[in-house]
Design goal:
Blueprint: E1 5-6, H1 9-19, H2 25-28, E2 32-36, H3 38-46, E3 51-57, H4 66-82, E4 86-90, H5 92-98, H6 103-118, E5 127-131, H7 137-143, E6 171-177, H8 181-194, E7 200-204, E8 208-209, E9 212-216, H9 232-242, H10 251-257, H11 265-273, H12 277-289, H13 295-299, H14 305-321
Parallel strand pairs: 3-4, 3-6, 4-5, 6-7
Antiparallel strand pairs: 1-2, 2-7, 8-9
């Protein structure tokens, strides 16, 4: 990935200094770990210039799952910390074209997803949510000869003259998952040709599926995902039934190698959602060092107290954030 930069401690410290608040847990723990020209955004902010945030959602399911929430939770922090406007795009047109859904169904899913997004608590006076069905055509027409994907248009303030009148040079910051980077690299190439400022990005790692780190949560697989509409009991059952743990299958291996927290999904979820660093560190030490077995052994009648406590902590943390 050309020109991508890692988010280091000096950048995190700078965000803290400029916002006069503690950095978000996603910054502290490396969930958002990379960026493109975020420093330029901070430079302009330090000069007293504003910017706006842009993020989006492709509505293909009834409800958002936890993986979908990561960029929205971080975007809410950015909006509050920097006191800037936010544009959220619902790409219902893409789901209509590629998911074999009707226009009416994609629009219905967009409305349902918008409810979940609104529930994240964005500032209603500084947030604009829109559907791609029927908007942006002037900028899309300009951009389409240059790139094949029209997600570029919301990166430019002229797409929203009612929001940013006379602010054609306003910078845009895009919080997104790392897999979105190629789309916006093209957008950055197009921007100077159209006389616009290049958008900046701040990018996160994937939120893993319940089954392990090899995949991300999928809206099409309910056993891989925890949805915002799941009840506390649903969350508990899914974690207990499907979450991959880092314990060893055999007692001898567990005593020798301990639990592998790098692969443990309940602990990984805690690293996203449990804000108390000292509590997370306590769980890391207690869970990682105890000579406990996996759920396979628990099913054979052998008790697994520490793994259960880690899962219980995950339930509580997710309940607090739901």
């Amino acid at each position: 990935m050309v020109n991508i930069d890692w988010i280091d401690q000096s950048l995190i410290d700078r965000v803290k200094r400029l916002t006069c608040r503690e950095p978000h847990v996603f910054l502290r723990r490396g969930v958002f770990f990379a960026h493109r020209y975020f420093n330029e955004i901070l430079d302009s902010y330090e000069r007293g210039e504003k910017f706006y945030l842009y993020t989006g959602r492709g509505p293909s399911s009834e409800a958002l799952h936890l993986g979908h929430l990561i960029p929205f939770m971080f975007t809410k922090y950015l909006q509050e910390a920097f006191n800037v406007p936010l544009v959220i795009q619902l790409t219902d047109d893409e789901k209509f074209m590629w998911k074999n859904l009707t226009v009416e169904e994609t629009q219905r899913l967009a409305r349902e997803n918008a409810k979940d997004i609104i529930a994240c608590g964005f500032d209603v006076t500084k947030t604009f949510i829109f559907s791609k069905m029927g908007t942006l055509y002037e900028n899309v027409a300009k951009i389409s000869p240059c790139v094949t994907d029209n997600k570029a248009a919301p990166c430019f303030p002229t797409s929203f003259p009612h929001l940013f009148p006379g602010m054609d040079k306003l910078r845009c910051l895009i919080p997104c998952a790392i897999d979105q980077d190629p789309y916006f690299r093209m957008t950055r190439d197009v921007a100077p040709r159209l006389g616009y400022s290049k958008p900046a990005l701040i990018e996160s790692s994937f939120f893993p599926a319940l089954q392990g780190l090899s995949g991300k949560m999928s809206a099409s697989d309910p056993n891989s995902a925890i949805y915002v509409t799941d009840t506390a009991e649903d969350i508990k059952n899914k974690i207990n039934r499907y979450a991959y743990t880092g314990g060893r299958d055999k007692e001898k291996d567990q005593k020798q190698h301990r639990s592998d927290l790098e692969k443990d999904i309940p602990f990984k979820y805690l690293s996203f959602f449990l804000e108390d660093d000292s509590e997370l560190d306590y769980i890391r030490k207690e869970y990682g060092n105890e000579e406990k077995l996996t759920d396979d052994e628990k099913e054979n009648g052998k008790k697994k107290d520490v793994d259960w406590s880690c899962k219980e902590a995950t339930h509580r943390s997710l309940d607090r954030n739901s």
